[in-house]
């Protein structure tokens, strides 16, 4: 059977032997370790390189609800994965794909597999049209997996095959030896960043956001006040970071404790201030050393405060959370946060660039260096350039008041430059000073 090829995933240091996966079952069991979490309701595609099928770049996207969206999504995923690999200097020799979705009410795992079969076929034809074969497409549902490519019922029976018990697969053993951890499910990771749902808490936070918008936006529209508001935002954010840093974190109630430490008015003031991308760029400098952990806790907490009509305001703190996570070596957490940011605003440049760079395995050090240089330059005596400022636009009266902002900031440009530099160097990671 030509789909059961060996595939290899390096674990730990470069000196260690890579792990070899020899069957669809081992591929299915390895998926959470490839991503760092258990994907749910997801299309996952992984590039393979060389005769031995070394794993390369990987992409994850939520499965579109409408089958009408499947063809363009399949085409886009195939193009992104293949072109991203080419930018790093190595076109994939093949691809493996996974469709992960739990059964709906009254549905079985096998019915999920049959319902998603057209999407699996479209992924295969999309990659094939770009001259990259798909060696395997697996459907994972209800604790079982099915192969769309293997016709042999002896190894891939029609009723599916049960997944290995957690921690018992060959990949689990290798990951444990290498210190690789699986965070839980994608749904659980997204829940840590999702807006509050308690009606009383939502109503109180929405009132605070309304009040902050009514007072903040008019100040920004007055010439010269934008910089002052930005400075106040950063001062308050730094104060909240210090407060969080003084409180140990850990356990399942960590997020609840962080929420308790930040008042509604404080959260609203920082959230509105972060809508100015120049202020956001300054906040992004808290990405390493002792600043990183409390900053990440703050950005997560603020993301949860973007309730009701203020949902899109979460784009900035989600992007900052993704950036700090990536900078400190938490690629799975970064992908989840940046994916949520792009779900809210697909055109948010900083999130786009970070998500692409993280998915392609680039090194965040180039962007960290850019931010350090910006911080040093601000500290030097002499006039600062003002070209980054744009003339404020009039605020729209209906709905939540948003801070007028430039479409592309210096940090956006720095992220793009860092991505290009890393690609030219081969996309290899260096030492992560943020670890």
Descriptive notes:
The chain has 435 residues and is of the alpha+beta class. It contains 17 helices and 8 strands. Helix 8 packs parallel to helix 11. The C terminus is likely disordered. The two termini are 44 Å apart. The chain has a 6-stranded mixed sheet with strand order 4-3-5-6-7-8, with helices on both faces.
Short description:
With 435 residues, the protein is α+β, with helices and mostly antiparallel strands. The protein has 17 helices and 8 strands.
Q: How many beta-strand runs? A: 8
Tell me roughly what share of residues is in helical segments: 40-55%
Residue fraction in strands? 5-15%
Structural class: alpha+beta
In whole angstroms, the N-to-C terminal distance is 44 Å
Tally of helical segments: 17
- Main β sheet profile: 6 strands, mixed
Overall 3D form: globular
Compute the average pLDDT.
82
Features:
435 residues, 17 helices, alpha+beta, 8 strands, 6-stranded mixed beta sheet, 50% helix
Question: Secondary-structure blueprint of this entry?
Answer:
Layout: E1 7-9, E2 19-21, H1 24-35, E3 42-49, E4 54-62, H2 70-87, E5 94-100, H3 109-115, H4 117-129, E6 134-141, E7 144-147, E8 161-162, H5 170-178, H6 186-191, H7 199-221, H8 225-245, H9 254-261, H10 264-274, H11 277-283, H12 292-304, H13 315-327, H14 331-344, H15 349-359, H16 365-379, H17 410-424
Parallel strand pairs: 5-6
Antiparallel strand pairs: 1-2, 3-4, 3-5, 6-7, 7-8
């Amino acid at each position: 059977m030509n789909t059961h090829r060996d595939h290899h995933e390096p674990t730990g240091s470069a000196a260690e032997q890579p792990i070899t996966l020899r069957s669809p079952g081992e591929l299915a069991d390895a998926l959470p370790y490839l991503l760092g979490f258990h994907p749910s309701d997801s299309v996952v595609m992984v590039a393979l390189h060389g005769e031995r099928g070394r794993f390369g770049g990987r992409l994850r996207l939520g499965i579109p609800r409408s089958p009408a969206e499947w063809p363009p999504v399949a085409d886009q995923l195939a193009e992104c994965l293949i072109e991203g690999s080419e930018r790093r200097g190595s076109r994939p020799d093949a691809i493996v794909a996974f469709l992960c979705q739990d059964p709906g009410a009254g549905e079985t795992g096998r019915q999920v597999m049959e319902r998603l079969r057209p999407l699996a076929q479209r992924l295969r034809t999309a990659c094939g049209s770009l001259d990259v074969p798909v060696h395997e497409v697996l459907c994972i549902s209800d604790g079982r997996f099915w192969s769309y490519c293997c016709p042999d019922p002896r190894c891939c029976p029609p009723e599916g095959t049960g997944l290995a018990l957690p921690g018992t697969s060959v990949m689990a053993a290798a990951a444990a030896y290498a210190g690789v951890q699986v965070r839980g499910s994608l749904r659980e990771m997204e829940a840590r960043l999702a807006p509050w749902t308690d009606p009383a808490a939502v109503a109180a936070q929405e009132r605070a956001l309304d009040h902050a918008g009514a007072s903040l936006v008019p100040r920004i529209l007055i010439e010269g006040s934008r910089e002052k508001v930005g400075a106040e935002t950063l001062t308050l954010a730094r104060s909240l970071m210090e407060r969080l840093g003084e409180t140990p974190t850990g356990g399942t109630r960590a997020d609840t404790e962080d929420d308790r430490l930040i008042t509604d008015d404080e959260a609203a003031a920082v959230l509105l201030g972060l809508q100015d991308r120049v202020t956001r760029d300054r906040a992004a400098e808290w990405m390493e050393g002792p600043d990183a952990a409390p900053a990440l806790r703050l950005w997560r907490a603020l993301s949860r405060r973007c309730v009701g009509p203020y949902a899109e305001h979460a784009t900035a703190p989600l992007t900052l959370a993704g950036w700090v996570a990536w900078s400190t070596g938490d690629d799975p957490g970064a992908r989840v946060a940046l994916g949520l940011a792009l779900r809210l605003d697909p055109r948010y440049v900083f999130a786009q660039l970070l998500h692409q760079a993280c998915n392609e395995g680039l090194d965040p050090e180039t962007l960290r260096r850019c931010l350090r240089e910006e911080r040093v330059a601000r500290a030097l005596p002499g006039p600062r350039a003002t070209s980054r400022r744009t003339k404020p636009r009039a605020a729209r009266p209906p709905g939540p008041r948003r801070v007028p902002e430039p479409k592309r900031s210096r940090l956006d440009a720095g992220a793009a430059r860092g991505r290009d530099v890393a690609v030219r160097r081969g996309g290899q990671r260096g030492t992560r000073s943020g670890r």
